[in-house]
Amino acid sequence: MNFQLDGLHRPVIVVGGGQAGLSMSQCLTTAGVGHVVLERESAGHEWRSRRWDSFCLVTPNWQCRLPGFPYPGDDPDGFMVRDDIVAYLEDYKKSFDVPIVEGVEATRLTKVPGGGFRVATTQGELTADHVVVATGPYQVPLTPRLAERLPAATTQLHSSEYRNPEQLPAGEVLVVGTGQSGCQIAEDLHLAGRRVHLAVGSAPRVARRYRGRDVVAWLDDMGYYARGIDEFADADAVRFRANHYVTGRDGGHDIDLRAFAREGMQLYGRLTDVRDNVLHFAPDLRRNLDAADAVSEGIKDSIDAYLTRANIEAPPEPRYTPVWQPDDEPRTLDTTRISAVVWSTGFGRDHRWIDVPVFDGKGYPTHRRGVTSSPGLFFLGLPWQHTWGSGRFCGVGADAEYLARRIVAGERAADVRWISGTPRNTEPADDWVAPRTVA
């Protein structure tokens, strides 16, 4: 859409045009609330530009259920690859009249004396009564400082820059990190016949299938994905916990690092240092592998218990038996043996452009279900914003609907009491306020 942004006022400004921002727009459109969506690149840019060629979702297609736009294909139990995800978002964008302005970056957010907000952008200043920050959690690729000590001749990429094995120079490759990205990139290189060295961290794993179904389906039936963050005694720890590694590649299967090792991949513990052209690793490989397996088997325990409680018949399945054990744990690797390093070391947040005091001492936005202590300012698309699915296709819509209700009803500051930075509130009714038009 074409807008003259400088001087524009809207009831709501949504910053970010990914699945979170588009979901927010759809809910506001349904409620008749005037708004504009600002997107620095193009809608769905993260999926286009920060995913490798063979990337696919680790959750089944049936979990793709953005507001008003459930998965439209004919393979609900399959896993969308990168280009299909981009097409899904493009089709979603076309399914309703999104008031989006692409190629515009929000550079500063401030409060307006007397109420509302001012958003400075690369195309002028806008004002709004409400702002929804839907920029997601993965803004700044993180690479450890020890990367600076590697030889200049060693090619280094963050996982967000990795595309395919052919992108890297010939030779052996070190992948650092075993979250979802690290494990899947290591597999991509391994299947391409590259000699891979993998620094194994503490991320847990999960089986793809168990007792006749995808584990995601069992957990969904068990209500796991609808469980609110407030139900956990260690909410902060849960919110920042690493995701379980598994893959949807080629129809979906387990990622078993032990099997990779048996096939020739060299596993190490955590990377701890680089000195005199030698990489040093912690002696925690066995512990990390055992811990990942224990989490996977614990999830199976919970499924077994659920099946018993619910009197559900499902085919029995033998439990996992480790296919490889490290006889010893290699502690060093000479940098001359590798031609490239892929840093699968995660992302950080960059909210420096937000000049509103809603952040804790670690720079995380203090909120309850996306509602901050500053009336009218909201966040959407954060991991575990309310449930496991909050930052994903399966749960971001419910969060967007909740925020739309708050916006339509009018943010009631008296509903929220902030004690030592921790929000406590009385929630509004879950049913929609009657839609009204806000121009």
From TrEMBL:
SUPFAM superfamilies: FAD/NAD(P)-binding domain. Keywords: Oxidoreductase. One of its GO terms (molecular function) is flavin adenine dinucleotide binding. Gene3D superfamilies: FAD/NAD(P)-binding domain. It comes from the Bacteria. This is MSMEG_0569 family flavin-dependent oxidoreductase. It comes from Amycolatopsis carbonis.
